[in-house]
Amino acid sequence: MKSGLERIDMGNRFGSAGVQQVYSDVEAYYGAQVAKHGATPRGVDWSCQATQSLRFVQLLRICDFAAPFALNDVGCGYGALCAFLDLRYPDSRVDYLGVDLSRAMISRARRRFRRADRRFSIGKASPRLADYSVASGVMNVNVGYSRAAWEDFIAAVLQDMRRTSRRGFSVNFMSDANGASEASGNLPETRLYRTNPERWIPYCEDALGCSVETLENYGMKEFTLLLRCRQNLAEDLPLRH
User: What is the mean pLDDT of residues 60-67?
Assistant: First the structure.
């Protein structure tokens, strides 16, 4: 069996134009979701606020709240993490930047949060280097691509997060303990992308230069990867436009 690193080739199988099309389709999908459900967890494809908050708890374990820091929130949606930060860490100084493909999402976020340390940007990647980055659910809904193509998209997102994070970043995935998704092949359809930590740990360690901590068993069928940067790869990772 090939390692996760060997099977994931940084978009070379799919090509940069193909990855750009995925971004476009993801934008359309989530724009439709927020138009239908509004600024609610269902508007970003989560079932309820309780599970959404539980995911935020795991993702933010990458951050050191003992001192001020800058945080990129990739796929920020309508800014739910901002409200969570204010509730959970009211005394912490967090320079927050939310980034999302959807103009509709960013418009709602900007209306909800009007503070100098709560800013939002339209795009697929952060325009700035921050101490930490998080992404909640960005990789989980395959909007109609083969598994191989979707993993090229995931690799591109992870590369951008690594390039724009000084200290570390974190992401979550739906778990696939029984390997059912592997057996499903590459049929193009809208479905949840399920995987296991072993598929992505080698890539994050070897290609992105990170140490990896896996969080599991927190009450949902998923896992979170905490990725701490071991070295500065900013000059080695190409910018994506």
Answer: 97
Which residues are CB-contacts of 46 (< 8 A; sequence separation ≥ 6)? 52, 55, 137
**Which residue(s) pair with 22 in the sheet?**
none
Task: Show me where the domains of the chain are located.
Answer: 4-229
Amino acid sitting at position 4: G
SS3 content of the chain, % helix, strand, coil (to 5): 40, 25, 35
Tell me how far apart the alpha carbons of residues 217 and 171 are, in angstroms, rounded to a whole number.
15
Asked if residues 23 and 123 have their Cβ atoms less than 8 Å apart, the reply is no
> Whole-prediction pTM value?
0.82
Phi, psi of 72 (to 5 degrees): -100, 130
* Pairwise CA distance, residues 193 & 151, whole Å: 9
Q: How far apart (Å, rounded) are the C-alpha atoms in residues 53 and 89?
A: 13
CATH number for region 4-229 = 3.40.50.150
Compute the half-sphere exposure of residue 25: CA atoms within 13 Å on the CB side of its CA.
16
